[in-house]
Amino acid sequence: MNYTVLVVDDEHDQRRALIEKVNWAAAGFEVIGEAENGVEALDIIETLEPDLILTDIRMPMISGLELAAKVREMRPATQIVILSGYDSFEYAQTAINYNIISYLLKPVSSSEMSEELFEIHRRMDEKLASVISAPSEDIQKQLHSLSVDEFLLPLMLGSNEEQPDDSELSARAEELGIIKNTKAPRFCVLASKFKNSDGISCTGKDHAEFIDTVISHYMHSESFVAYGRAITLVVAEGDGELSNLLELPLKEIVQTAKRMRGESCTIGISREFSALSDSSSAYFQAITARRYTSDGAGEVRFINDQEHDSELEIDKVEKSALRLEQLLKVGSEESLDEYINGLYEINTPENANLLVMQLIATVYRVVSTTADKQALLELFSSNPFFSRLTSYSSENVMKNELISFCEDAKALISQSQKRDTEILCDRVVQIIDENYSDEELSLTGVSNMLAVSPNYLSALIKKTIKKNFVTLLTERRMKAAYDMLVCTNMKVLEISEKCGYSDQHYFSYCFKKFYGDSPNRIRSVNRGEE
Q1: What are phi and psi of 258, to 5 degrees?
Q2: Which has the closest alpha carbon to 258: 38, 46, 49?
Q3: Which distant-in-sequence residues (6+ apart) come within 8 Å of 289 by Cβ?
Q4: 295: which of 15, 63, 64, 380 is 20 to 30 A away, CA to CA?
C-alpha cells in the first residue's frame, strides 16, 4: 500500500530538495504536506494524519526528537524518520521509544534517500503486518487460545454454574499465562466493535488478535469475540490512572483500524478491578460504555467518563433490567416504549408486580449514577405513578404510567449528561485560566484533575468548543501576553516565562503566528512609538 508523508525541515532549500528530487512514488509514498518547524508540524499532523514524518533533528523551538515524542502522544500509529548529523548511540536509543523507524546520518543525497525509502516502506509493511496479520495457523497457539477463551467466556458472560473462588481463578489465570509476575494485578475489560466503510459490523477473530498485538507493546491482554464484539481482558501494569496507561494503545487501535484496515472502531472500557470474579460486572460496564460513543464525542469511552461509581453491582440485576438500563442511557424513546410493552406481553399478571419493582429499582440506580440527588427526588416525587402503585384498576393503565415514568427518567438523564458535558468544558477553561503560566500544563494533567480519560476529554472539547486543548491553552497564553506587553514594562523574556514558555524564541514565534506581528512591534504600535 502507499503511505502518506509529512516533511519537516527549517531549511527551505533542503526541504524543497527532499520533496522535489526524491522519488517518493517509486517507493510507495506520497508527500501530503511540509512544515518549516516542529510547532507548525504539530498543527498539520492533527489535520492531515500522515503515516510517516521525515524530520531534521536540529530545528528551532522543538527538536526532531521532541517532535517525535509529541507525535507519539498524538498519533502512536505514525512512524518517524530522523535526519541527523549526530552519529550518537544515545540519540538512536532514544529513537526506539518514539516510533522512529529510521535514523539517517546527513548528508543524504536524493538518490540515496530514494533508495532508503524502499527499506523504510518494507519496515512499515512489517509493522503493519504484525498488527493486522491473519489468525495464526500454529496448532499449539490455537489450542492455547481456545483454553484461554474457555476460561474467560463464563467469567465475562456469566454462567449458571457456581464459579471457583478468586484464589482458584487467579491460579488458573497464571497457569494460562494471563497473569505474569504480578503480585497485585489490576484488570479492566474492553468492548470493541469494528465497522467497514459501509457501516456494517465486521468484528471477527482477526480483530481480537489485532487488539492483543497492539496492546502487547504496552501491557498484556487476552481477547475473544462474542455477540459481534471483541471482548478484551487487560492486565494493567505499573502505577497511575488506568485511563492514562491505556491512552496510547487505545489511540493506536482506533488510528490503525481507520488508516490501515479502512474500518471504524469504537471501544468501551470498564472500571478497574482486582478480583477476576468481578469480570462479569466489568463486561457489562464496557458494553454500556461503548454505547455512549454514539454521541459523537470520540471513539473511546471509559464508563467513569459517563457515570459516577456505584456500590450496586450490575450483575445482580435481571436481564430485563440490564436492557432497560442501556435504553435509558443511550436508546431512543421509541425503543424504550417498545421494550416495556414487550415485557408486559411476555410476563404473566402474577409477575407484573415483580417486574414493576425491578424496573423502578433500575431507573433509580441509573438516574442516581448520572443525575444529582435533587433531580432524582423531583423525578420520584412529581410522578403520580408511585401514589397509585398499589391501586391500579388495570394492568394497561399501570403499564402506560410506567412508560411515562421511564420517559421522564430518560429525559432527566439526557439533560444531566448535557449539563455535565458543559460543566466539564467550563472547568477546562477555568483550569487553563488559572494555570496557563505553568509550562507543564497538559491535557493528561487536566483530565486527571477532572477524573476523566484524556481521550474522552480531548474529544469532548473538540465537539463542544470546536477547538482542541492546545489551541485553547495557546489562545489564553497569547491574550495574557498581549495584555502584559501593552500594560506593563516587563521584558519579553519575563512575559514569555509568565505565559508558560521557557524558550523566548518559541514564545515569539507563537506570538507572531497568533497576532501577525512580533511582541516588540505590538508593544511599539500600542505605545505610539511608530
Answers
A1: -70, -50
A2: 49
A3: 191, 268, 269, 270, 301, 302, 303, 305, 306
A4: 380
Q: 38-57 pLDDT, tens per residue?
A: 888 998 998 899 999 999 98
Q: Which ranges constitute the DSSP H helices of 49-134?
A: 64-74, 89-96, 110-132
Domain parsing of the chain, residue ranges:
3-132, 134-306, 471-526
What is the chain's length? 530
Pairing type for strands 100-105 and 220-226 reads: unpaired
Q: How far is the C-alpha of 415 from the C-alpha of 185, rounded, in Å?
A: 38
Distance between CA 172 and CA 169 in Å, rounded?
5
Q: pLDDT tens for residues 101-130?
A: 888 888 888 889 999 999 999 999 888 777
Please state the pTM of the whole predicted model: 0.69
Amino acid making up residue 287:
I
Q: Identify whether the C-beta of residue 202 lies closer than 8 Å to the C-beta of residue 196.
A: yes
Query: Under a CB-based contact definition with an 8 Å cutoff, are residues 234 and 241 in contact?
Result: no
CATH number at 471-526: 1.10.10.60
pLDDT, average across residues 461-489: 92
Q: Within 10 A of 287 (CB to CB), how many other CB atoms are there? A: 22
- What homologous superfamily is domain 134-306 in, according to CATH? Reverse transcriptase/Diguanylate cyclase domain (3.30.70.270)
Instruction: State the sign of the Cα–Cα–Cα–Cα dihedral 11, 14, 17, 19.
Output: negative
Tell how strand 29-35 and strand 52-56 pair up: unpaired
Q: 3-132, superfamily in CATH?
A: Response regulator (3.40.50.2300)
